Amino acid sequence: MASIGTVQTAVDSSILRHGRNRHRPIIPILAYRPKKSVDAWGLTNFHTVGFSRNLCEDNDGRLSLYCGSAGWRWRIKFVQATGKGSEEAESGDEQDDALHATIEKSKKVLAMQRDLLKQIAERKKLVSSIKSSIIDPESDELPYEESGGTFSSNRMATTEGDKINEDLDHESLSTSSVHSAVNDVNENPASASSEYSFANMTEPGKDLPHNEISFQSKPERQLKATTSDTVQSQDVPSAPLRSSVTPSPESFSNKNYYKWLNNATETIISDSETSTKVDSDKLKDANVGTTILSDAPSSLKYEKNKDAQESSLEENVKVQDPAGEDVKPPPLAGPNVMNIILVAAECAPWSKTGGLGDVAGALPKALARRGHRVMVVAPRYSNYAEPQNSGVRKIYKVDGQDMEVTYFQAYIDGVDFVFMDSPMFRHIENNIYGGNRVDILKRMVLFCKAAVEVPWLVPCGGFCYGDGNLVFIANDWHTALLPVYLKAYYRDNGLMKYTRSVLVIHNIAHQGRGPVDDFSYVDLPPHYLDLFRLYDPVGGEHFNIFAAGLKAADRVLTVSHGYSWELKTSEGGWGLHGIINENDWKFRGIVNGIDTKDWNPELDIFLQSDGYVNYSLDTLQTGKAQCKAALQKELGLPVCADVPLIGFIGRLDHQKGVDLIAEAVPWMMDQDVQLVMLGTGRPDLEQLLRHFEGVYSDRVRGWVGFSVKTAHRITAGVDILLMPSRFEPCGLNQLYAMCYGTIPVVHAVGGLRDTVQPFNPFEETGLGWTFGRAETNELINALGNCLLTYRQYKKSWEGLQRRGMTQDLSWDNAAQNYEEVLIAAKYQW
Ligand SMILES: Nc1ncnc2c1ncn2[C@@H]1O[C@H](COP(=O)(O)OP(=O)(O)O[C@H]2O[C@H](CO)[C@@H](O)[C@H](O)[C@H]2O)[C@@H](O)[C@H]1O
């Protein structure tokens, strides 16, 4: 006879195997389980459906438990077993008195629930009929509270001090969905009371619990010999981390690109077709159960979680969500549900210097919405409000020194955010890529070494991810060591055999270059040197982290189709085009999406004060005009509705083509326009911004600094956004602009070419203006046409705005494409 424990284990491991462990519907099942003949019931079916938590009898008379919460839906179905074992059980004396009693009881409960469901259905009908007769556009609740942040003066500050990412202080984060169950134990009082404030910096060691617990996970114990080799530090000559090869993307001709695009589309389609052909043996193998760490603290957490979740489950059984039936089931189920860990050096809103932070903050949520179990791992540069100390600590060797890592975590919008705390990451929140080459390299070594072990060490929702169906998504050179460590430390040793890694190229210009001697810092077996060693005519023979990551990763992605094409050219590959071409079979471009909650004129929290207003397609004309006036006022510019207001937001460097705008400024000033530029970066370009503001004080504003709030307000308030980037892997600002009815004028390169279809005045199609070469006269020409349309063809202008605003630019499309790649990687041997 099976024991209660056996049944629990069966249920639990099924849940775990699919990576869904947050809701363990164990107690309610047992409540309906017959006391005596447990064998008469067997778990035969287990898959996701779109229902709320509920226990009921199916049409076929079988007993099912429906359970779940936002994004996670389960049905656990019990049928009477018909096998040999059950026959034996049925023939015994104890045969089923209790079983019948239980079934009777269950039937009564089910009948009650059926009644309840009927009532709910009727009420729903009533509600929807009322709704259809009364449409109140203002009734939508906003998910955020007003930030309350305001500028201290009408003029924009331009001092160095503005470089502090001050707006993050004001950002109100959605904390309602933060799950705190895992923090019941080992919680650090210091971190629990921490504010989301840079003033409240943690001193080294302050967050560490007094009782040192150092977990030794299974793989770690087995690998000790591999990973603990001490490497001597060596003096190395300094070399630039960036390649100095400058591409001339003018040669990325549209004709060649579109020809390539046609072929590539065909390849992608056939690729995804083959990836869905699943070898069932491999599938079985890959589905090995997720390992649960049995270390005391994790199990303790599990017990506590279990209680919490069981009681909430009971509550939920009592209070059914009538809307539950309408919730779409997650599109995936079974073997294709992945455990996904995205690893990035920055993650918005906690840390952000550019687009990578935006992607790391938003893509995981979209993947989670598709039904995957998703984690983000990022460094903890400062005291963040939501993530709490998990109590898990571990020491890693970096350049022969012991470096301790502590993990903080939060569960937000369906994603486990895990932040790695270490003295190496502290006090650099305003300059996260700062320090000399070796400092940065050592930080990334620690980050990647530790990140590979997170699935074994950090229990999220009570359980570690383990390595079943696991795929890492590494981003840019900072985390390109991760695929290499996964291979060298684990897969070469027969461990984490089914774990895959995908490396995403957001910007090939930064590669983690150095002298070949840098190899000593990465702590790898000598034969791995070849992965890193690269020769190019500019840098000569050197050590290149991106090169090694590209070779070691199971799949390589980049952030647009256009950029994926450019990366294969000698102009666009920045010395890595050879490797990318050799690995073309595993390489693909997927255009970024945007976070449609954060970047949405209807919901934008930065448009709720200081004269700004939220607006939609319906209120575009009035709402956007109001935002423009508020921006002009805030900047101290004349408030004129008819004067075109032009904007630029971005890093001030060669890539973004700020110098082209600078060259065009005298021409612009003759056109009766206003210009606002927000950016930080190269000191000479920062100085240029200040200079223009000084010279054209009634028409130009140059904000030197990083301000998320100002970026949102500029996006809403300006009429035109300039992006004359020399190269642009994807570009997010033009996407944000289009959502806000702001018209982009862009150099047709990389992702800009993919996302901004040029305006065609004859057919009234297109989304903005593009120009073919990164040259000032081309920019002027495109901007001239744009201004003409703004002034003389109001209808066409409105058409452009409307087309931009009605696009689906959400991450959901991109997430689906990522999923294809992750699944293809999973079945790749
Ligand atoms: N001074 C400032 N103050 C406030 N916010 C500022 C700011 N400067 C920039 N930002 C914000 O940073 C982000 C920049 O996004 P981009 O896509 O242009 O970035 P970036 O070149 O960093 O990223 C790289 O990665 C991304 C993501 O894949 C690619 O889209 C891109 O082409 C590639 O170069 C935007 O959200 C923008 O608003």
TrEMBL record:
Report the GO molecular function annotations. Answer: alpha-1,4-glucan glucosyltransferase (ADP-glucose donor) activity
Q: Does the keyword Nuclease apply?
A: no
The entry's keywords:
Amyloplast, Chloroplast, Glycosyltransferase, Plastid, Starch biosynthesis, Transferase, Transit peptide
Q: What region holds the Starch synthase catalytic domain?
A: 339-581
Query: From what organism does this protein derive?
Result: Forsythia ovata
Main location class: plastid
Query: Pfam families, from UniProt?
Result: Glyco_trans_1_4, Glyco_transf_5
Question: In which domain of life is the source organism classified?
Answer: Eukaryota
Name of the protein in question:
starch synthase
Similarity annotation = Belongs to the glycosyltransferase 1 family. Bacterial/plant glycogen synthase subfamily.
Q: Which reaction does it catalyse?
A: [(1->4)-alpha-D-glucosyl](n) + ADP-alpha-D-glucose = [(1->4)-alpha-D-glucosyl](n+1) + ADP + H(+)
Q: Where in the cell is it found?
A: Plastid, Amyloplast; Plastid, Chloroplast
- Report the EC code(s) recorded for this entry: 2.4.1.21
Task: Report the InterPro entries cross-referenced here.
Answer: GS/SS (IPR011835), Starch_synth_cat_dom (IPR013534)
Q: Does the keyword Chloroplast apply?
A: yes
What Gene Ontology cellular component terms go with this record?
A: amyloplast; chloroplast
**Pathway info:** Glycan biosynthesis; starch biosynthesis
NCBIfam families found in the cross-reference section = glgA
